[in-house]
Amino acid sequence: MSMKNAAYKKFKDISREEHISPGTALCTGCGGLLALRLAYKVLGENVVIVNAAGCFTLLSVYPYSPFSSSWMYTAMACAPAGAQGIRDALDILIKKGKLKSEENLKVVVLTGDGAANDIGLQSTSAAIYRGLDFYYFCYDNEAYSNTGFQMSSATPYGSRTATSLPGEINPQGTVQRKKDLFEIWRAHKPPYLATVSPSHPVDLSNKFEKASKFEGPKLFIALSPCPPGWSFDASNSVNIARLAVQTGIWPLKEAVYGEVKHTVIPKFKPVEEYLRTQNRYDHLFNPVKQVDVIDNIKKDVEQYWERYLDS
Amino acid sequence: MKNSTNEMIKRVRFHGRGGQGMKTASRIVGTASFLEGFFVQDCPLYGAERRGAPMVAFTRLSKEPILERGLIVSPDINIIADETLLGDKNANVFQGIWEGTVTIVNTHYPASHVRNVHGIVGEIVTLDVTEIALNVIGESVLSSTAAAVVCKLTGVISESSLEKAVTRELSSINLKKETIQKNVQAALICFDRIPEAHPHYFEPIKEDKKDEIVKLEYADACLGSPSVYAKGSTKLKKTGNWRLFRPVIDHEKCSRCYTCFVYCPHSCISIDGDGYPQIDYDNCKGCLTCFYECPKKVISKDREVKAW
User: Which CATH class is domain B9-193?
Assistant: First the structure.
């Protein structure tokens, strides 16, 4: 995205209005909450959140709510279906003249990576297929963090979760590669699709601004460093998210009707710098360094970027 | 329920915040008691909340098989690992304490101060466990130190069982050897710092003597419902007492770059009329993202010791 035409150029362009109040039950230093807070500043107040079960359902624990807008809680599998119902109801109210079109709401699905990659993948696919006019915000903390950090299909290769502990047979921890949700969604050719990171607030804001120009599915995957799950100090979420971008592990990109463009080309710091910040990768360095596993992670990153930087 | 009047049974209740290590502390005490030859039971209790939110854990130890189950309403030893919980009505840390309860509070205040402020019955012991943990382990995780305090107060657990239990429990959660060693060291310091407990609180009580039904006070519906419908009502929860360190902005040196405001995950930093960032201390959880991200390094962190 060229900076010249961008709506956001610096931190001072970011809205001072808050749409998520302090005082939530979320973990201290939650990276996903920061990403959502920044996104909300662009989305504004006229929003209805459809929240699939996960960490973020604890944002709103009766009788408290941090939102300046509406919120609905659904099961893990069906947030996009819930969004369809709300969208239809709003459209009918507007058509009947019972709701002014300026009071229209943006319907935003909010799910974790577990709902997005595993349990709710089908209903998301169906909603994109139907061309539902909605936003999808996936906070990707790379596991089922809400229930004690069990592996999801977004868990990266070589990391430790409660259900993929490094052991004699699998010293690398997680054996599987992270599912490429971006590519799965992109295959549907939605109007707008992007990855974002809380470490890059200007990039994030511009993507939400750009998405607002499209009608139909607008999907986002937000890197969400998780202090208890990834096992690092609560002050470090932004730094770790930044390292994920700088090492090339978390590409910042967008796809308009399926056409991919990278919005940040990193300088490629060594991946080890990222891995060493989190105890979920500690077994790759202690008691003996698992050079082959680290090399595989490096290779994956290199192969990914070769594909894009050559073309 | 078996009447346990004649055998020694001890009931320990741990109050802390998610992430402080009280669940592990209850396990360490359980394991240490087991190594001493006792029958043991331990379990944590969480709400739907997480790191930083109040939680409770329980350990029972006895010479006979333990047939009691569930929450410990009247503890013999009641440890409050986070002093900010003392004033928290929801955490209810003094529930069911009686003349025989030994309450240990992790604070730098003397025991007399705690008694005067809260007017609680039973024995009170205070120790700044966090300080010991910060000095020896380097972080404010209180699992081994809190467990050591409890082990000492039971009067029936030896130093060597404590040491073995700390090592065993912390190894099972994959901590590094050096971290475990530091934890053992900190635990032994705490163990030595607690005076030998008085024998009279060993006296067990029959739990059925007390009315254990928790009576909720009447509250008018109007009091609660406006909060439910208000926008952004979570700020009434005041999560500021989750904080261990307080970020302080030096406004003299601040260049008004907005970095701390932009990166605060919890919406606790706002920009005032003059363009300076202001921290909402009622709700700041003390993640210290601002402290680390400030490009001019004009934010300092102060240990929060007078939270109540």
Answer: alpha beta
